[in-house]
Design goal:
mainly beta, two-stranded antiparallel ribbon, 5% helix, elongated
């Protein structure tokens, strides 16, 4: 597996046996736009090194990855995250 230096800081490793899966969820309220005003970036800072939910599920979000449609700027926004 290729670990590009700009995505994985020196000394960072990805454990064997883990994989990354891309999935989208649709929201009638694109809250990352309307509530957080986040249209770019990732969470955590490097979504390729995910954080675990309280259930132990690793998750990483790219705020700009899915399509979003707004009726007006930051109003009536719905889309995929």
């Amino acid at each position: 597996f290729d670990l590009p230096g700009d995505m994985f800081p020196p000394g960072q490793t990805m454990s064997l046996g883990r994989s990354l899966v891309k999935a989208y969820a649709f929201y009638e309220d694109a809250w990352w736009h309307t509530k957080l005003n986040r249209t770019v970036g990732q969470w955590p800072a490097n979504a390729f090194l995910p954080t675990n939910t309280s259930e132990g599920i690793p998750i990483g979000i790219h705020f700009n990855d899915g399509p979003v449609h707004c009726d007006a700027p930051l109003k009536g926004c719905r889309g995929f995250l």
